[in-house]
């Protein structure tokens, strides 16, 4: 521990005092926007009010209101506490409070746009910051009904929320980084945004968000891409279902603004069932919205047309993404061929289902993988939700920028005797260097993969190329679809799962990216 004066930084809003630990300066709970409470509920974030005295930044700030999943097999999802609508805070890990202008890595947490926190122990930035002489920033942003509900359409603009308020929070945090990170030893001209799951979907959407342009310079999407958005019509329908649940008229603006957080969370718990039973046929009912203003166009369309043509990217997935959710979702479990067809028909038009099943069965048999109905279901759902959207994002960006790198994470979780395989979230532990015995396993091989993964992410943040000494050359994704396999064995493969990908080419865009 150092003298407190060593850990005081002057920001544009006032001085903040952090702590020094493990050779790093750490700042927790710095407000980057005004509390979005009262009349500010469902409005874009506003600048934080300046303070005069030194602000204590040694404890994480409150996190967005959310429902804790007590049945989650991920222990860190059960650790979320100190919830409040006043949740717009960020955290910083930095090796030095100087003018060294280190690369900045800006983390956006996942959680289905409804749960999570930048302060989760799984996301501590200290290992990346120490290993790569980098500045790591994590944030909280508005979640669920408070961050991704479009009320503008149903209220006729009386509550002008677009459903992108959570994204606008992220933009304001990036603006804060632009204006302040130099004082924390970071380079505002070298900012990499990276996220996993809904965090990666946020990254994919920020690529197309005009207000975010110029605030970041590289992007990493882990198990999420640019396909998870609603049209205004779908967002309006979700808002109508929300109003039905809470029993309020769209014109009763005062009642909407004064709904208690508890009532909002209870409505949020019911909404996925309502949207699944409706013509929307989705359970992810609170996602970014192509509203025509904040998000003018479909992200993939905007990216394909070159709105971020200067941005290098890493885009990747895990081998068995969907198996994490199969433990809690009975719809994703089947041992029977008829049930396989029925389950897939819930998500994919029936005219495509049999062809997909046949393609996957033949391709998997050819490479010695299981062709059991439940394994085919898992593979098709993994690809529909994650892998195909990732490859489509890569294809869209490659039309403008060749500096794109693809990976497939194959390290298997130790949970349930390995039945979850290389499931969703498994890569995050290796990116942040926090392997947990109960989830990832541990040992020499795990440590080696941590080193390779972190070195690659840090090299990319510094130079725009993830090749590094520990991993070796990581080629760009080109005509042969070069993909880096990250697992117990790391290597580059070409034309990965080409047969399966071709089977999706005629499937409508609407089936991708949402449960």
Describe the structure.
This protein has 515 residues and is α/β, with parallel strands linked by helices. The chain has two domains: 4-290, Rossmann fold (3-Layer(aba) Sandwich), CATH 3.40.50; 338-385 and 399-511, no CATH class. The protein contains 15 helices and 16 strands. It has helices at 126-132, 144-147, 165-180, 198-206, 232-246, 253-257, 261-277, 299-304, 323-326, 337-345, 350-366, 373-398, 426-432, 444-463, 498-503; strands at residues 8-11, 14-17, 19-21, 24-31, 55-56, 89-94, 102-108, 135-139, 186-196, 218-222, 230-231, 289-290, 313-318, 404-409, 483-486, 491-493. The strands form three sheets. Strands 3-4-6-8-7-9-10-13-14-15-16 form an eleven-stranded mixed β-sheet, with helices on both faces. Helix 4 (198-206) links the parallel strand 9 and strand 10 (218-222). Helix 5 packs across helix 7 (261-277). The protein is globular, with a radius of gyration of 22 Å. It starts with 7 loop residues before the first strand and ends in a 12-residue tail after the last helix. The mean pLDDT is 93.
């Amino acid at each position: 521990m150092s003298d407190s004066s060593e850990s005081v930084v002057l920001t544009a809003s006032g001085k903040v005092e952090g702590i020094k630990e493990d050779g790093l300066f750490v700042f927790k709970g710095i407000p980057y926007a005004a509390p979005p409470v009262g009349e500010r509920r469902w409005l874009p974030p506003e600048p934080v009010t300046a303070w005069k005295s030194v602000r204590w930044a040694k404890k994480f700030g409150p996190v967005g209101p959310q429902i804790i999943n007590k049945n989650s097999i991920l222990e860190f999802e059960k650790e979320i506490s100190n919830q409040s609508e006043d949740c717009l805070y960020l955290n910083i890990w930095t090796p030095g409070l100087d003018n060294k202008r280190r690369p900045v890595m800006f983390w956006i947490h996942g959680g289905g746009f409804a749960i999570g926190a930048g302060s989760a122990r799984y996301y501590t930035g200290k290992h990346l910051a120490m290993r790569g002489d980098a500045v790591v920033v994590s944030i909280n942003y508005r979640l669920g009904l408070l961050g991704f509900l479009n009320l503008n359409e149903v209220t006729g603009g009386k509550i002008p929320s677009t459903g992108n308020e959570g994204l606008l929070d992220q933009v304001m945090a990036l603006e804060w980084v632009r204006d302040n990170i130099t004082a924390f030893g970071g380079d505002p001209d070298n900012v990499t945004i990276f996220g996993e799951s809904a965090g990666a979907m946020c990254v994919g959407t920020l690529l197309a968000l005009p207000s975010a342009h110029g605030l970041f310079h590289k992007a990493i999407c882990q198990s999420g891409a640019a396909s998870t958005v609603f049209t205004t019509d779908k967002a309006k329908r979700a808002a109508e279902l929300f109003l039905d649940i809470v029993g309020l008229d769209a014109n009763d603006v005062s009642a909407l603004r004064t709904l208690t957080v508890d009532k909002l969370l209870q409505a949020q718990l019911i909404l996925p069932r309502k949207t699944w039973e409706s013509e929307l046929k989705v359970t992810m009912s609170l996602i970014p919205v192509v509203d025509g203003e904040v998000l003018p166009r479909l992200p993939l369309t905007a990216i394909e047309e070159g709105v971020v043509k200067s941005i290098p990217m890493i885009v990747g997935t895990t081998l068995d993404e969907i198996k994490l959710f199969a433990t809690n979702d009975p719809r994703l479990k089947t041992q029977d061929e008829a049930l396989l067809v029925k389950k897939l028909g819930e998500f994919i038009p029936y005219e495509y289902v049999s062809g997909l099943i046949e393609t996957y069965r033949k391709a998997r048999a050819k490479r010695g993988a299981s062709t059991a109905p439940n394994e085919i279901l898992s593979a098709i759902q993994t690809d529909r939700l994650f892998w195909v959207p990732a490859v489509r994002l890569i294809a869209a960006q490659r039309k403008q920028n060749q500096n794109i790198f693809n990976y497939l994470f194959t390290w298997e979780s130790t949970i349930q005797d390995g039945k979850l395989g290389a499931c969703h979230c498994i890569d995050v532990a290796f990116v942040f260097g926090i392997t947990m015995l109960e989830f990832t396993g541990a040992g020499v091989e795990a440590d080696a993969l941590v080193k390779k993964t972190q070195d690659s992410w840090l090299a990319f943040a510094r130079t725009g190329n993830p090749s590094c000494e520990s991993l070796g050359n990581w080629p760009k994704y080109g005509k042969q679809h070069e993909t880096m396999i990250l697992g117990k064995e790391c290597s580059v493969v070409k034309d990965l799962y080409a047969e399966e990908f071709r089977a999706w080419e005629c499937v409508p865009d609407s089936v991708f990216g949402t449960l």
